[in-house]
Amino acid sequence: MNPRSSINLSTIRQIWGILMARKGRTALVAISIFIGVLGVVTLISASDILISQLESDIKQSELPMIQAFIRAESEAKPPIDNEAHLETLRQQSDATEIEAQANYPFYWRNPGEERFDEARLFAFSEPFSEVDMEPASLVKGEYPSAGENELAVERRMAEERDLSVGDSVEVRVLGAVDGDDDQEVPTETWTISAIVFHPYGQQPDSTMFAPMEDARYLANFKSFSRISARYRDFSTAEESRDSFLQAIADQTPYIVIFDIAEDPAQNTFIQSTQDYANVLTALAIVALAVAAFLVINVVNALVIEQREEIGVMKSLGATRLEVFLIYAGVVAVYGLIGVIPGVIIGMPLGYQLAVYIGDFINAYITDFVLSPLGIGLGIGLGLAVPILSAILPVYYGTRVTILEAMTNLGISDGMRGGPIARFLKRAPLHTNIKQSLGNISQKQWRFALTVLALTIATAAFMGVSALFIQLDDTLQDTLGTFDYQAQIEPNELQSYDEMESLIRNNVGGVETVYPGTALAVEAEGYVSQTAGTNRLFVLGIETGSGLVDFDLEAGTAWQDDPDREGIVLTTTVTSQLDKEVGDTIVLRSASKQLETEIIGIAKLPLGTGFMRWQTLSSFAGFTAGAPTPNQYLTTLSAPEQMNGQVTAWGVDQQVAASLPVQDGSSISADSPDQVLLSQSAAKQAELSVGDTITLGAGGQSRDYTIGGVFSIPDQLQQQVEEDVPEEIVVFYWEELATLEGRNLDGQPVPNAFLIATEKSEPTSQEVDEVIDEINSVLVDNGITASYQNQVQVTEQASDAILSVSVILNIASVIMAAVGAIGLLTTLSIAVVERQREIGVMRSVGARSPTIIAQFLIEGALVGVLAWVVALPLGYGLGILITDLLPVSSGLIEFSYPPLIVVVGLIGVLAIAALSSIWPSLAAARKTVSEILRYQ
Amino acid sequence: MEPLITMKNVSKVYETKAGPIHALRGVDLTVNEGEFVAIVGPSGSGKSTLINVITGIDTPTDGEIVVGGQRLNDMNQDDIATWRSKNVGVVFQFFQLLPTLTVHDNVIVPMQYANTHRGERGERALAMLRLVGAEHVADQYPAQISGGDRQRAAIARALVNDPVALVGDEPTGNLDPESAEKIIQLFEELVDAGKTIVLVTHDRALAGRLPRVEEVRGGSLVAEEDIDERLLVR
Amino acid sequence: MPFLEIKNLVKDYQSPAGELSVLQGVNLEVEKGEFIAIVGPSGSGKTTLLNMITAIDRPTSGQVIVDGTVVSDAGQNLTKWRARNIGIVFQFFQLLPTLTISNNVIFPMDYADVHPRSQRREIALDLLEQYGIRDQAEKTPDMLSGGQRQRAAIVRGLANHPPLLIGDEPTSALDYMNAKNVYEDFKRLADNGMTVIVATYDYEIVRNAPKVLELKDGVLQTVNLEEKETQVA
Q: What Cα–Cα distance (Å) separates residue A293 from each residue in A331, A343, A452, A602, C91?
C-alpha cells in the first residue's frame, strides 16, 4: 500500500463534504465537545492554579511541626517575661526552632472616620526578617521598627481597605488603660511602613503586623498566643510532642488550650485545596464523558447513514483504512471546532474560578496566569476523547462490504428472532406500543448510549439538587439548636459575675449572658473530617439553662439532672467512634486526660461535644483562686489565747525547710498534721512543740500537733506580698487548703461568654450593633476580647454552601442540556432514517396524530427508562460528591427527598417528549412523496 | 356510470436544484370500475408520479384528480391517509412492511387506522394472508422471510380493508414465475368480482396480458396506436 | 489468452425460503478490446454476474479470471487492483453526494494513484467535456438531471483509463439518441483497446453493441434480437 495516497485531496474533500452536509449535526457535536473541553480546561486550570499558587507561597520549610495555642494562667501576674520563657523552652527541648506569635484583636480606623474597626494584630517573637516559621514576607516598604509607631498591613487587607505605605491610621491604645475605670482609651496616629504577604494567616483581609512590644502596647495582652516548634524531622516531632507540651505546662505560666502536630509535607492548606481540586476534576471528567457519549451516538448514526457511500468509496479504490481515515478526520474536525473555543474561553474562566475559590481557602492568586496542565488536558482530551469514542463505531461501520452496502434497498434490517422479538409477538399490547418497543430494541446500541448520556445528566441534576436541599435543611436544623447570637472570648480569663454585671448594666438588647468554655481536645480515636484539625471541639455550657436545645437521638443528657457529669456527642462523632450512650470516652488536652461517660447523642452536622462548662474549665486548667504555695495567707479560727484567730501561712516543702526552726523540726508534706508556730504565736498560745492546737476554717476545726517553733526571718516579708503579722502558723500548703475546703486547682472560670439577645431572631447587623456596644464597655474597663457574630457565621456558612451548590447545579444543568441535545440528535437522526417507515404508515392510512404519538411513545419510554436507571446512579453520584466535598463530607448522609424523584421524572419526560415531537411534527406535514424525496 | 378514477389535465412539476422537472404534463385519464390496467414506460417517464397522484401520495401542481367521487386535490394529508386506507390498497416496491411488527400485525394495522372490522381484525388478517398464500409466515418478522413472502404479505395488507381499487408498482417483481402466476390469477379474480386494479410493470408478459395498457412517455400518455409494442408481449 | 474468462460460474443464495440459484454455470470468454452487451429481464441475475467480474461478490463455485488475476478467490483484498483495472458504472449512479462532479471523477484517481497528481484535474475535465457535461463540473450531483448524473457516472468509471469497463444499465436514464452516442463511444474505446461489458434489460438499445448475449435460466445464451418475443418461463 502506498502510504502517500492514504490521505489525499479526496480524503480532505470528503471530510469537508460530510461536515458541510449536516451542518446542524456538526454544530451539535461540536457544541457538546466544546462544553466538555470548556469544563475540563476551566476546572482543571482552576485547581492547577490554586495548587501551584499554594505550593509556591507556602514553603514546607517554613511550616511548624508542632503548634501550641496558649494563654496565660490566671494567677500569672503581668508582666510575664514571655521572651525568657521562650528561651527556657529552647534550652530544654531538642527542637531545631522554637518561635512564638501573638495574635490579638485591636481597633483601628482611617483618619476622619468615626467608627473603629476590629482587626487582628499579629506579632512575632523574632524580628520580622529573622522569622523562620510562617513569616510575613516584605512586599513593599520597610518592616515596622519598634517604638516608631509603625505598622505593617497584609497585602489583602491593603487591597480591601485601600491602604498604602505611608498612610496614617488611628489606633486605640488598649494597653494604656489597664482596668482604670475613669481613664478613657486613648487614640494614637500610627503609620503604615510596609505591605507584607502572609499566606499562613487565617484572616488576611483584616490583619496588621507590629513589633512585639508595640503590639503589646496596642492590644494589651499578657502572653504569646501560640508557640511553634520545628524538629529535625516530623517523626522526631511526634515523639517529642508530649515532652514539649509538658515543658510548657511545667516551666512556664502558660496553659495549652490545644495543640496541633502536623507534618509539613502533608499540610492542610494544600490538602483541602486538593479536595476541592478532586471534586472539580471529577466534574470535568463527567462533562467530558457525556460529550463522548454524544460523539459515539452521532458517529454511529453517521456511518450507518453513509453505508452506501462507504461501499461506493471502497468500490472506487479506497481501502478500509482509507475510509476509516475519512471518518476519523470528520471526528477530528468536530473535536477541533469544540476544542479551540473551549480552550480560549476556558483559560480566563479557569483563572476567575481559581480567584473565586481562592477567597474561600485563603489562597492568594496574583496576576493572570495560565495553567499549561489545564490547557494541555483540554486540547488533548478534547481531541482524543471524540476520536477514541468514534473508533469503534467507525471501525464497525467501515467493515461493511461493497455488496452489503449497495444492496440496501427499502427499510433497514428489521427484527429477527431474539428474546425481545419473541416477547413482543405474544404481548397483548396495542400495535403502537409494540412498534415503539420494537424500534427501541432495534436501535439498541445507539439507544443505550443516548439513555446513558441522558441518565448521567439527569442523575447528576437529581443528585445535586437533593444534596442542596439536604444541606439547607441541615443548616436550618443547626440554627435552631443554639439559642445564642454572639460569643465573646476575652484575652484573659474573666470572672463570670464581673462580666455579667458589666454587660447587663451597660448594654441594652442583651437578654442573657451565659458562661461557657470553648476548647479543642483530642478524643481518643476521633479524626475530624473537616479540613484542618483532628481535634474534637467541645463546648462547655450552662447545662441547666436551656441554651442548647438538643435533638437527642439517644440518652437523656441533662434533661433530668443538670449537674450530671458526662458528655453529649454529635452523631458525626459517635458514628466514627462507634460508641453508644453509656460508653466512656477519653479526652486529652495538652498533657491532661479525662475519662467521661457519654450521656447523650445529638443529631447535628458538626463534630462537637458538649459538657458542663465547669467540668471542662477545670479540665483545661481555666481556674482562678487556686492557692499558690508560699503566697498563701489566710485567717483561721484559733484557741482563745490567741484572740480567737490566727494568720496561717501555707508553704511548700522548699520554703518550709528554709525556715529557721528553734525548737523541734520543720514540717513537710509527709506530716501534714504538723504545724509550725512563730515564736510570738507560740508565746501567745502558751504552747510548745508536741502540744496540740485546734484550728478551724469555715466551721470546721482540726487538731494539729505543733512540730516546731521558728523565728520569722527578715526575707519573709519580701517573699510574701501581703503584710505578715508576728504571730503566724505555718502549714503545709495543701493541708491548709484542705482545711479551708479550697480546691487545690481553684474554681473553674469560663473562657467564653455566650450572649442571647433580647430580640429572638436578630439580623446579623443587629447582632453586630450589640457586639459593638459590649466591646466599647469592655474596652473601657480594660478587657480585650475576640467577638464572634453567630448569625453572621451561619450566614457565611450558608453562602458557602449556596455557592458550592450553585456551581454544581450549573454543571448539572449543562450536562442535562448536553444529554437533551444527544436525545434530540438521536431522534432527529432516527426520523431521517425512518422516513420510509413514516411513508409506509401514511400509505396504509396513519394520520398525523398516530405518527406523532408513535414518536412520543418512544421518547417517553426512553425517558422513563432513563429515569429508572438514573435513580440508583444519581444516588451513587450523590454519595460520591458528598464524600469528595470537604464542606459536606462526614457531616451529611445522602438520601433522596421524594420531591426530587418526582421532579426528575417529570423533567426527563418533558425533555424526551419535546425532543421527540419536534422531528415527527416536521414529517407529519409533508406529503408522502415529499417525505421520500427528502434527500 | 361515473368512472372510478378521473384525471383531468394533471401536471406535476418538481423544483430541484437542477431546475424544474416536469414529471407529468397535462395528463387526462379515466379508469372505470372493474378495469385492469397496466402502466408501462421507460424509467423516469413519469409513471410512478402518475400512480402517486392516483393514490394521493402526491398532489398535482395543476389539474384535477377525482377517485371514487372524492376530489383529492384539496384534501389535507391526514384526510387523504384515512380515505386511502378505506378505498385504495397500495402495493409499492418501497412501501414494504413495518419491520418491528409481525406479518400478522402488519396486516391488522390498516384496520386500526381506518377503524374497520372491530372485533374480528385478527381473523380477517389471517384470512387475507391465506388468500395470498402467506399464512405460513404470519408470526414472523419481515426480516425473517423471503422477498416473495414479504410481497405477498404486502398485497394481503393492501386488500384487508376491501378497497375499491388496488394500485401497485411491480407487485410481482420479487416472485418466482409460479407464485407470480398465482397472484396475477388472484388479481383477475378480484377484477371479476368488481375491483379496479392499476399496475405499473416492466414485465412484458404481464403487461401484454392485461386488458388495458397505458404508456407514459416524457410525462404524457401516449395515444393507443402509438404504444411501443416492444414493451409488451401479447 | 482471453482477457476475461468465466468458467462454470455458479452463484446460490441462501434465503429463508430456501436456496435460490441465480447463476447456474455461466461460461464466457472475452478478448481484449471486445464490447459485449448482456441482456435480460429484471431479476435475471445480470447485476450478480457483473458483481462477480468486478469481485464485489464471490461465486459459490467456478472461476473468474481478469487479465490473469483470479478475482473469484474469496480470500483476496482486491481494492487497489480493482481501482486500477476496472471502471464501474453503477445502475443507480451512486455519485458521492457531497462532492462536485469533477471531484467525484477525481476521487478514484486519488485512490488508485494511476495518473500523476498534477494531471488529474485536467484529465477529469477533459472527460467531462467529451460527454457534454463540462459545464456541470463544479455542481453537486443533486443539481443535475438524471441523464447528466448518469453521464457523470460513466465519466467516473473511465477516470483511471481502466483496461476493463463494466456498466450496469449505463444508459437507463438517457433518451434514445444520447444512449446511442454512449454506445458509439464505448465502441470507440473498445477499438482503442478497452474491454467493455455492459448489462441492460433494454432489448432495443442493445442492438448498438457489437456482441449481445442473453442471461437466461442462469446461463448465457445467444439471442436473436430480430424476434420480438422470447419465452417467458
A: 13, 21, 8, 46, 38
What is the layout of strands, in order, in the sheet containing C69-70?
Answer: C18-30, C4-15, C61-66, C69-70
Closest Cβ–Cβ partner in B81, B93, B143 for A842: B81
Q: Which CATH class is domain B5-231?
A: alpha beta
**pLDDT for C44-100, tens place per residue?**
788 889 999 999 888 999 999 999 989 988 777 888 899 999 999 988 888 998 899
Residue found under cell 381484525: B121
Indicate yes or no: CB of C99 within 8 angstroms of CB of A14: yes
Q: Can you tell me the distance from the alpha carbon of A826 to that of C2, in angstroms, rounded to the nearest whole number?
A: 53
**Which of A833, A843, A852, A934 to probe the B interface (max B CBs under 10 A)?**
A843
| Residue A379 to residue A341: CA distance in whole angstroms | 11
R_g of chain B computed on alpha carbons: 18
C33 vs C191: CA distance, rounded Å:
6
Q: Where are the alpha helices (DSSP H) in C41-140?
A: 46-53, 79-85, 101-112, 120-130
In angstroms, the CA A414 to CA A435 distance is 12
**Shortest Cα distance, chain C CAs vs residue A2, angstroms:** 9
Which residues does chain A have within 8 Å of residue C82's beta carbon, measured at their own beta carbons? 315, 317
User: Which of A 389-448 lie inside 8 A of B, CB atoms?
Assistant: 409-417, 421, 424-425, 431, 434-435, 437-439, 441-442
Confidence of residue A412 (pLDDT cuts 50, 70, 90): very low
What secondary structure does DSSP assign to A420-431, as a single string?
HHHHHHH----H
The verdict on A414 touching C (C-beta cutoff 8 Å) is no
The DSSP bridge pattern shows strands B36-40 and B212-217 to be: parallel
Length, in residues, of chain B: 234
Q: 378514477: which residue's cell?
A: B5
What are phi and psi for residue A316, nearest 5 degrees? -90, 5
User: Residue A547: pLDDT band by 50, 70, 90 thresholds?
Assistant: confident
> Which domains are assigned to chain C?
4-222 (3.40.50.300)
Global pTM?
0.69
**Chain B residue at shortest CA distance from C201:** B202
Alpha carbon distance, N-terminus to C-terminus of chain B: 30
pLDDT of residue A891 exceeding 60: no
The H or E element that residue A103 is part of is strand A97-109
Residue spans of the domains in chain B: they are 5-231
Q: How is chain A split into domains, by residue range?
A: 1-58+281-358+365-409, 60-266, 413-484+790-935, 492-625+748-783, 632-740
Percentage of residues of chain B with pLDDT beyond 70: 91
pLDDT digits (tens, 9 = 90+) for A281-292: 777 777 777 778
Query: What DSSP designation does A377 have?
Result: H
AA identity, residue A192: I
Optimal mutation site among A5, A10, A310, A326, interface C, most CBs of chain C within 10 A: A10
- Angstrom distance (rounded) from CA A615 to CA B178: 107
Three-state secondary structure call for residue C166? strand
Per the listing, cell 483562686 goes with A625
Percentage of chain A surpassing pLDDT 70? 84
Name beta bridge partners: C61: C10
Report, as an integer, the average pLDDT of B47-75: 88
pLDDT score, position A417: 63
And the C-alpha cell for A513? 449572658
Q: How many CB atoms lie within 10 A of CB A523?
A: 24
| Domain topology for A632-740 | Barwin-like endoglucanases (2.40.40)
Q: Which of A20, A315, A933 best tests the C interface by mutation, with the highest count of C CBs <10 A?
A: A315
CA nearest C50 in A: which residue?
A403
> What is the rounded average pLDDT of the residues A915-931?
68
Strand partners, C9: C26
